[in-house]
Amino acid sequence: MLLRPFCDILPSEITPPEIYRERRLFMQGMGVLAAGAALGIAPDAQAETRLAGVRSSAYTLNEEKTPYKAITTYNNFYEFGTGKSDPADKAGSLKTRPWTVKVEGKVSKPGEYDIDSLMKLAPLEERVYRMRCVEGWSMVIPWVGFPLSELIRRVAPTGNAKYVEFVTLNDPGQMPGQRSGVLDWPYVEGLRMDEAMHPLAILVVGLYGQVLPNQNGAPVRLVVPWKYGFKSAKSIARIRFVEKQPLTAWMRAAPREYGFYSNVNPHVDHPRWSQAKERRIGEFLKRDTLMFNGYGAQVAQLYRGMDLQKFF
Ligand code: MTE
Hints:
Sulfite Oxidase, Chain A, domain 2; 5-stranded mixed β-sheet; 13 strands; 21% strand
């Protein structure tokens, strides 16, 4: 079977569709009568998908937000195919109700959370975060969610819980990409316990004030803004507290290319391309990649004394 992990796609290959899409968004902007919704800046106001009682948060970044349309049509979600538009085209087959998230492993209070009760675990906040994909593009996304630490506190990890593993739903019937061998399914990601407890790490259930679209990882996904996007596992069905460092889907697929930490780092290149620059979706010129994606003041102390070339 031909394995083609997403990072076998050369930056030169991924540029054309991106520019094409940007151009399309730009062309829409040229229409004199184009309203905000047609531009895709914000979602169309649909009362039934709007999340109630969302607070604003001090963790909000003051940068121009990526338009809703780009956030929801330019995605990586290999369970629905490897093309950037595949998730938006195909994720309609994912049933997000009923949905349970199993919390298990080294915790005193394991359990199953129905998604609607999980969403009420803590007040929902809007947090505008910078997101950086390992492929070299970035976006600024107004997520809606709550700190992962809120869930962790409730399940009371034991002293042996050193890492947290996040596992995506495994159901090839609903996720056609899982019928291919592009990754070893299900998708697995992981964090060290102190990373998982960091206030910036959130469980996300929405964006732009609306229920999370399937292609962005509905009904619940992780978001860890100082790490490359692939750490932010989508459509989570299981959260396991474990003693040993989890073997993540990307480490399993290409261990030389994807380490466990995967912190955004302009000084550690991917073996096949530089990480020094990035393209913000919607912009033409590249920007410098920021250490820890610009969140160094908040997270650098987690890695004090670690060789980040070795623990990439
Ligand atoms: N989660 C699952 N289950 N499957 C995936 O293929 N792709 C990752 C991450 N989470 C992925 C996933 C990658 S590579 C990125 S960049 C982000 O999701 C993209 O999130 P977005 O499409 O909401 O921007």
